[in-house]
Amino acid sequence: MSQAPVGLFDSGVGGLSVLREVRARLPDESLLYVADSGHVPYGEKSPEFIRERSQKIAEFLLGQGAKALVLACNTATAAAVADLRERYPELPIVGMEPAVKPAAAATRSGVVGVLATTGTLKSAKFAALLDRFASDVRVITQPCPGLVEQIEAGELDAPLTRELLHGWVEPLLAEGCDTLILGCTHYPFIEPVLRELVPESVSLVDTGAAVARHLQVLLDKRGLRAVGPAAATRYWSSGDVQEMERALPKLLSELAEVRSLPV
Fold first, then answer.
1. Exposure class string for 238-261: b at 16+ Cβ within 10 A, else e
2. With contact defined as beta carbons under 8 Å apart, do 77 and 71 qualify?
3. pLDDT in tens, 142-198
4. Measured between alpha carbons, how far is 177 from 168 in angstroms, rounded to an integer?
């Protein structure tokens, strides 16, 4: 069982930023990745729809032999992780949440900005995070409609991507934000562009590395850590598989076959 793969999924290719962190921390683990790109972005969908899709994808990954699941998507985590944990109580399941706690600890100005999807910002889970960890700081949220689609298309450094980011970041900086939370797993891929748009003194915070650490803890606790070598990562998409194949070299610097997701 320890040699079985870990399954990860996201609304699209954004969760590859989490997969990258899992590979770095757990290089012996074989990985399965599902991009639900036929329904991207989740941030504009209802919680009921996201729960249904998450359940179908979880069943698919378990059918492929996954020993653990990573919901590499903030919106899917907010909508579906509790349901999946209830349904599969023995399965190690790791979710994502915006890095409110580390951002609140890191800010010097006391003002934190959050770049995220509409779905994440509207979720009860995000509201609870603010109540729990950000009572002493001012948090300014900024929905980023259209940014996920730009990243899905591989337009990481395109003029429109820069224009969108500039329009969202400038008001946050004007309010005194010295820490920006990247509240969507797609967003680490545009971090190089963001770094050009914000002063060096502004911290950019995401949770991919923390998710990889938590996965390691759960696998160790259950005696499920793999002993290498890892098999080649297998990829599926519910969208255009050729588009994802073109995106992989830009996002992960690798070439791989992407199969059509049958659910």
1. bbebebbeebbeebbeeeeebeeb
2. yes
3. 999 999 999 988 899 999 999 999 999 999 999 999 999 999 999 999 999 999 999
4. 12
Cβ contact 191:182 at 8 Å: yes
For 32, the enclosing helix (H) or strand (E) is strand 31-35
As a residue count, the chain comes to 263
pLDDT, tens digit, for every residue of 104-121?
999 999 999 999 988 889
pTM of the model: 0.92
**Buried b vs exposed e over 142-179: b needs ≥16 C-beta within 10 Å?**
bbbeebbebbbebbbeeeebbebbeebbeebbeeebbb
Q: Kindly list the catalytic residues.
A: 73, 184
| Partners of residue 54 on adjacent β-strands | none
Give the domains, in start order, of the chain with CATH numbers.
Answer: 6-96+208-260 (3.40.50.1860), 100-205 (3.40.50.1860)
Mean pLDDT of 121-138: 90
